[in-house]
Amino acid sequence: MRRAIPAAILTCLLGLALPALAQEEAIMNQIEQVQGDAEGFGEAFAKLQDGFLFDTAPEAVAELTAYPLDVMVDGNVITVSDADALIDNFDKLLTPDTQAAIAGQDFADLIITSEGVGFGNGVLWMANLCTDDACDETYWAITRINN
């Protein structure tokens, strides 16, 4: 009888996890079809989430950003020229609501378009960018922040 309880709990946990895994796989497939390099996106997503989790968000966002970066703050567009400027002004450039939206982003709720992948109803956008005209190599970067 004691062995049945852990098995039942494990069965319930697996039952809860399998739909989430299937949904994540569907999102990854959609990213691959629309933007390409879904695996690279997964790595960038994890790095961004880890930044907010481990209190290194300014550095994580700065490292993942393509510069110059346009940031919408209070209806005005501010162009951030480099990582140091983003880190130094992080709390001014990303409002607490924007930071919370990014930190709490559920993988299943990402917005996927030909323009990129949106977080938090579009407060942050990432895109798979080409390193050259042939687009043989790409990388994922933050391309826009909209507070």
UniProtKB/TrEMBL annotation:
The keyword Signal is assigned to this record: yes
Signal peptide (residue range): 1-22
Swiss-Prot/TrEMBL keywords: Signal
Record keyword Signal present: yes
Protein name: DUF4440 domain-containing protein
Species annotation: Devosia epidermidihirudinis
Species lineage: Bacteria, Pseudomonadati, Pseudomonadota, Alphaproteobacteria, Hyphomicrobiales
